[in-house]
Amino acid sequence: MDRKPRILVVEDEDNIAVALDYLMTREGYDYDRVASGTDALPRIRETHPDLVLLDVMLPEVSGYEICEGIRMDPMLSDVKVLMMTAR
Q1: Is the pLDDT of residue 76 over 90?
Q2: DSSP characters for 20-80?
């Protein structure tokens, strides 16, 4: 049996996270969420998701910095990143 793609949502706004939760659940994805930029890279390294839905504007650490951290880590070279912004 094929495993579901794992998605990590990095989003600090609860209303956006609730909407993404609805969509992910409806589509049957295996996903997790972190709401802070500082929690993102450790969680990505721990869970090695297939895709990171990454908010650009986060408290503490920006989405750009997190993306750079993912791209600089050879162990995460296969992790796809989709950047999101409300702007």
Answers
A1: yes
A2: HHHHHHHHT-EEEEE-SHHHHHHHHHHH--SEEEEESS-SSS-HHHHHHHHHH-GGGTT-E
Placement of tokens 């992790």 in the chain: 79
Nearest Cα residue to 8 out of 53, 38, 42: 53
Instruction: Work out whether the CA dihedral 28, 33, 62, 77 comes out positive or negative.
Output: negative
Q: What's the predicted TM-score (pTM) here?
A: 0.91
Phi, psi for 55 (deg, rounded to 5): -70, 140
Q: Residue 63 and residue 53: Cα distance in Å, rounded?
A: 10
| Residue 34 clears pLDDT 90, i.e. is over it | yes
